[in-house]
Design a protein that fits this description.
Chain A: Keywords: FAD, Flavoprotein, Oxidoreductase. The complex is a heterodimer of chains A (431) and B (412). Chain A is an alpha/beta fold and 431 residues long. Helix content of chain A is 19%, strand content 29%. Chain A has three domains: 8-110 and 248-328, FAD/NAD(P)-binding domain (3-Layer(bba) Sandwich), CATH 3.50.50.60; 128-246, FAD/NAD(P)-binding domain (3-Layer(bba) Sandwich); 344-421, FAD/NAD-linked reductase, C-terminal dimerisation domain (Enolase-like, domain 1).
Chain lengths: 431, 412
């Protein structure tokens, strides 16, 4: 390949971008390779940000991802992509640079869903944080180290719960406000989420179920001092963590004629980006949080996973297909998995639990906070979650991949199956 | 030889010196039903899958039975109660979750880094003394003179057993070690001997625990007997069972590892020479040793539910033999598996078992073996085997030489 050939450009220099680029090199790609990242930092690892970094055990800049292959790439960091011209095969960056590409891997990830600012509500007070990037974590760490009187966390998803756990470890007073009856209700349902409620009670987190934060009030210095709730009550706080999940910034693709919105960029099963007509766009692939692909284990449902393991596996798969011929584009088959550590418990899950119509604790017990639970839908096992019982999870994952009946493994040690019922998911939220 | 009697061949002492051709035959079927109704698992992939299967139970030990004494009070009242107590409080190697996990967590907490570091110095001292003792001889028995005394001395010091009682411990350990041998558990005479030794060591431990409560020292037994408030603690019967387990499980296994190590090194003189020149090779060499000549060849489990694996169904209630030593030689997992190659990469062996019962004492065994082998290759000048293969002990699972005669020029 001659030097002026455009080669492959990877947009997004986080986990999926880096691992995708490495997979291209390992797959034998020897041409020009460019990595574009909106942040100025070299690729870093996000899971420690809401755990060790907040706890002060790890410096934010000590999270760099190791490079697993010699990339020999051109890096363009600190420059977000702002536009894509598919017919000319040109990617435009914020500084005006135009990059030609032969093939493009889109791995631009997701951003923390910001606190919605409406016209007339004025500027947001200071002291309100989100937690997604390394800079977010660094700023929040400084805020927590200053010893706020009460931290208010809005949203009881994984990030909200991990942050609450860290704050208690730091000895800070914490209130967690969640519209649902329990934390993790959206991903695990409230039957399992109730275990986190009991952990929070033990740890001294003030958990407020069914609570809607409406607005923040600032003191004279412009710093947050109070959160106003929908029911008219208020929570005094001087440090807020908004943990409302993530959105995909696909606005730079607005003019590209693709199927992209805040929920992701729609792809086919081979990780090829689809145009607005639903056809694979030539040379365009996506991986990681931004890629919304049909999942073979969930009836082809389009899902954009926000999981570390998916970013690695999907980037590798997309890279493989990028180097393969058009008649050898393989489908991505990946049972999603995630982990979290909070309140001294190692939580690991496989599959997509939302959509389940039943859940059963198949090993251990909720009361002991050491258990494995399986989710079922229409008589099939579709997901499993473990609290401090991760060693058994692969056995269940294998059964779930095989489409086994629910519950899938009978006769396990420490099994009574007395604890089962509806998983109790909240109503889907309107976007 | 029909496939369904191959495992009986494995347990036949005549095949003790080289069971590996039988393992190769067994691996032709990853899971094979034997004529006695048990299922032998012999490929790396099948073993790996089953050690992480929640339907495998380790609670398959036959109930305790104390021998008749002729004293009706003992035979009809005391011993049946003792039997029941012991049956309800098995060591964690024969327990399933959740009890297993609780007990294991408590024991692991006592394997602290300073304590293991302390062991390092102790082992160096003991190893030096044992080799000094054979100075002047031209022939030694590695088992009797070296590998047999070492592990018990180490575990006694770690537990906090007074030095003057170590000899008694050696005797108990020898009897009790056979209780871990699956094919000898059914033997009534053996079980009586085990029960008698168990009672004796239990009484001793009970006294020692009382002593550790009165005068706590910095040892594992003191730690186990005096738990920090708020932390999980075990009852006295579990405490005694755990202490006995540490003694027994750490004994013959380590004897085997060290003896097999020296046997393998003398059979591979180039490797012996390389280790002598570069003691830093020991960790890799020991990993390969754990693959090539593991101290425990198999463990048994019971299926709690029907398990579909490798094209067959293991029915609930069936006995399962996890043939770790066969998985270690599986050509589908290891290139050139019958070659002893300490430079092997990606050596995921089952030398310490696997899954939730993975050897608790693995770090200790590695330290002991490293110090022992390094000292032996440095100080035994021109070692040669007096008999090859050496005679083996009867056990097929805890497989190891009964004697290992080594001729030497001198002790350096």
């Amino acid at each position: 390949m001659s030097p002026d050939e455009p080669g492959i450009v990877v947009v997004g220099a986080s986990l999926a971008g880096l691992r995708g680029a490495e997979a291209l090199r390992r797959g034998g790609y020897a041409g020009p390779l460019t990595l574009v990242g909106d942040e100025p930092h070299a690729p870093y690892d996000r899971p420690p940000l809401s755990k060790h970094v907040l706890a002060g055990e790890l410096r934010p800049d000590a999270t760099a991802l190791p490079h697993l292959a010699d990339l020999d790439a051109t890096w363009r960091l600190g420059q977000p992509a702002v536009g894509l011209d598919r017919s000319a095969r040109v990617l435009r960056l914020a500084d005006g640079v135009e990059l030609r590409y032969e093939k493009l891997l889109i791995a631009t990830g997701a951003q923390a869903r910001p606190w919605p600012v409406t016209d007339g509500s004025g500027p947001l007070p200071s002291g309100i944080h989100t937690l997604r990037s390394r800079d977010d974590a660094a700023a929040l760490r400084i805020a927590l180290a200053a010893g706020p009187k009460r931290v208010l966390i809005v949203g009881g998803g994984l990030i909200g719960c991990e942050a609450a756990s860290c704050c208690r470890d730091l000895g800070l007073a914490v209130t967690l406000a969640d519209p649902n009856p329990t934390p993790l209700a959206r991903i695990l349902g409230s039957l399992i989420g109730s275990v986190i409620v009991s952990c929070m009670n033990t740890a001294g987190v003030d958990f407020r179920p069914g609570t809607h934060v409406e607005a923040f009030e600032a003191d004279a210095s412009g710093r947050v001092c109070r959160a106003r709730l929908k029911d008219g009550a208020a929570i005094e706080t001087d440090c807020v963590i908004v943990a409302l999940g993530a959105t995909r910034d696909t606005s730079w693709l607005a003019e590209a004629g693709l199927n992209a919105d805040a929920g992701g960029l729609t792809c086919d099963s081979a990780c090829r980006a689809l145009d607005s007509e639903g056809r694979p766009a030539p040379g365009l692939y996506a991986a990681g949080d931004v890629a919304r692909c049909p999942s073979p284990f969930y009836g082809g449902r389009l899902v954009a996973f926000e999981h570390w393991g998916n970013a690695v596996a999907q980037a590798g798969h997309a890279a493989r297909n990028m180097l393969a011929n058009d008649d050898d584009q393989r489908a991505y088959r990946h049972l999603p998995s995630f982990w979290s550590s909070q309140f001294g418990i190692n939580i690991k899950g496989v599959g997509l639990a939302d959509g389940a119509d039943a859940v059963a604790v198949v090993q251990g017990s909720r009361a002991s906070r050491r258990f494995l639970a399986v989710y079922g839908r229409e008589g099939r096992a579709i997901a499993a979650i473990s609290f401090d019982q991760a060693r058994w999870l692969p056995a269940y994952a294998e059964r779930i991949e095989a489409g086994a009946a629910f519950p899938p493994i009978l006769g396990a040690t420490d099994q009574s199956i007395k604890d089962f019922g509806a998983p109790d998911f909240p109503e889907p939220r309107s976007r | 030889m029909p496939h369904d009697t191959l495992f009986a061949e494995v347990t036949d002492p005549a095949n003790r010196a080289n069971p590996y051709p039988l393992y190769a035959r067994l691996r032709e079927k990853p899971v094979s039903r034997q004529s006695d109704g048990s299922y032998v698992v012999s490929t790396h992939a099948a073993i790996r899958s089953l050690i992480f299967d929640p339907r495998l139970s380790s609670e398959d030990l036959p109930p305790s039975q104390r021998p008749p004494t002729g004293n009706p009070f003992k035979d009809w009242i005391v011993n049946p109660i003792k039997n029941r107590v012991v049956n309800a409080h098995r060591p964690l190697i024969f327990r399933d979750p959740p009890d297993h996990d609780t007990l294991r967590g408590i024991v692991i907490e006592q394997f602290t880094i300073p304590r293991v570091r302390g062991v390092h110095r102790e082992v160096e001292g003991i190893v030096g003394d044992l080799i000094d003792k054979v100075r002047g001889r031209s022939e030694i028995c590695l088992v009797e003179d070296f590998s047999y005394p070492l592990p018990v001395m180490v575990i006694c010091r770690l537990l906090g057993v007074p030095e003057e009682d170590e000899e008694q411990f050696q005797k108990w350990a020898t009897v009790l070690a056979t209780a871990l041998e699956p094919d000898s558990r059914g033997d009534e005479k053996q079980r009586h001997a085990t029960a008698t030794a168990f009672d004796a060591i239990s009484d001793y431990m009970r006294g020692l625990i009382r002593e550790k409560r009165k005068n706590p020292a910095d040892d594992m037994l003191s730690g186990l007997a005096n738990p920090e408030s708020g932390k999980p603690a075990m009852g006295d019967v579990d405490l005694i069972a755990s202490a006995i387990l540490l003694l027994v499980a750490g004994h013959e296994t380590t004897v085997n590892l060290i003896t097999n190590g020296m046997l393998t090194l003398i059979r591979h003189p180039q490797e012996l020479e390389r280790l002598r020149e570069d003691p830093e090779r020991a960790p890799r060499l020991i990993e390969e040793l754990l693959r090539y000549e593991p101290p425990v060849h198999f463990r048994t489990r019971k299926a709690l539910g029907d398990i579909d694996i490798a094209g067959i169904t293991i029915p609930a209630g069936a006995s399962i033999v996890l043939l770790f030593a066969a998985g270690n030689r599986d050509p589908a997992r290891f290139t050139d598996p019958d070659r002893f190659d300490p430079d092997r990469e990606d050596n995921q062996h089952f030398g310490f078992g696997g899954g939730l019962h993975y050897c608790l004492g693995a770090p200790l065994a590695r330290i002991e073996t490293e110090i022992a082998l390094n000292a032996l290759v440095r100080r035994l000048v021109a070692p040669r085997l007096l008999e090859d293969p050496p005679p083996y002990r009867p056990g097929a699972s805890l497989r190891g030489p009964e004697k290992l005669g080594i001729g030497i020029e001198r002790i350096a």
